[in-house]
Design brief:
This protein has about 110 residues and is mainly alpha-helical. It is built from one helix and no strands.
């Protein structure tokens, strides 16, 4: 059975638009560039700020060292166990490879 053909649909023509008024765009005035007021900080203010920041840094570094020590103490038994297992497995394989394969002695 041949495919059924459909007739083409008619497309509606767009409605004509009325003319629109063209508006001109003007530039907005740029504010004058002025420097911000200079800070009234003294040398002592900077020194005190540095001291506070250094104390915060030292506190954070000490906390990091405590965490690293705890991690080392937690992980060291597992690392030692894995190292011992690896050494034993290596020596066992090495001994098996040193044995001659298929050689029998007859007296």
């Amino acid at each position: 059975m041949p495919a059924r053909r459909r007739s083409a649909k008619t497309v509606a023509t767009p409605a004509k638009y009325s003319e629109t008024e063209i508006k001109t765009v003007t530039e907005t005035p740029q504010p004058e560039k002025t420097l911000p007021p200079s800070p009234n900080l003294t040398w002592n203010d900077y020194k005190e700020d540095f001291k506070v920041r250094l104390e915060i840094h030292n506190y954070e570094m000490n906390a990091l060292m405590v965490d690293v020590k705890k991690a080392y103490e937690f992980a060291s038994p597992y690392i030692k166990q894995a190292t011992n297992y690896t050494v034993k497995a290596y020596t066992l394989i090495r001994e098996r490879l040193d044995e001659p394969v298929g050689v029998t002695t007859t007296d």
